[in-house]
Amino acid sequence: QLSCLLKMVTLHGIPKDLHSYTKELLLFLSPSDYAATGSCSQFFINVGKANGDVLPREDPRRQQLLLEALECLKIPGTQISAEDAEMLGWLVCDLGGEFIRSSGGRLLRDLSHCGSFLPEQEEAIRDVLSSGNTTFGPPAAWSAFTLSELSGLIPVLDSRILQQIPK
Fold first, then answer.
1. Strand partners, 13
2. Where would I find the beta strands (DSSP E) of the chain?
3. What average pLDDT does the segment 131-160 reach?
4. Structure-derived torsion over alpha carbons of residues 10, 11, 16, 20, reported in degrees to the nearest 10
5. Can you give the residue ranges of every domain in the chain?
6. 49 with 19: CB under 8 angstroms?
7. Angle of helix 60-72 versus helix 40-49 axis, rounded to 10
8. Which terms are listed as keywords in the entry (predicted)?
9. CA distances (Å), 47 to each of 50, 84, 98, 154, 156, in order?
């Protein structure tokens, strides 16, 4: 439906008031198409606020959006800053394990809002958490508050981490 709506809306070019339409419409639009109405960073801020579940995880458009977002935001290498993570919004959920490891604990709060993870993402999250080099500290120092902060990541924790958490 959104793809069809986009065709109708853009029949005569990209409308100047594109920002007034539902943000999910942007998931089917290329940033270069959007360039006439705003900056690519504004495009990805809006995409990051859209409901990413509209595109299934295996849809190639999701990966394309992520690649274009990383290019637009001029993210060098695999380190994502907290500011970049905020702009990426739900696209953070599609970052590979190398991004999660390189960014350390900066992505954990954002990742805790993701619905599911690929095995390589889960492994990277466990590596980051068990390192203890996050604002949460090592698992042996975690409290009930820490666990509530990490609630979306609890299914990723393995016995190695769970055994270290104080009762």
1. 11
2. none
3. 92
4. -50
5. 1-74
6. no
7. 140
8. Cell adhesion, Glycoprotein, Membrane, Signal
9. 5, 13, 23, 27, 26
d(CA 7, CA 14): 10
Residues in Cβ contact with 113 at an 8 Å cutoff, skipping those fewer than 6 apart: 90, 93, 152
Cβ atoms of residues 153 and 108 within 8 Å: yes
- Among residues 23, 91, 152, the alpha carbon closest in space to that of 5 is found at 23
Residue 31 CA, distance from chain mean position: 17
Residue 104 backbone zone (phi > 0: left; psi -120 to 50: alpha; other: beta) = left
89-142 residue pLDDT tens? 999 999 999 999 999 889 998 999 898 899 999 999 999 999 988 989 999 999
> Is residue 106 within 8 Å of residue 82, measured between CB atoms?
yes
- In 3D space, the residue among 132, 134, 124, 163 whose CA is nearest the CA of residue 114 turns out to be 124
Residue 11 DSSP SS3: strand
Tokens for 137, please give them.
């500290």
Residues 48 and 87: beta-carbon distance below 8 Å: yes
Q: Which residues pair with 11 in a beta bridge?
A: 13
**Residue for token pair 């060098």:** 76
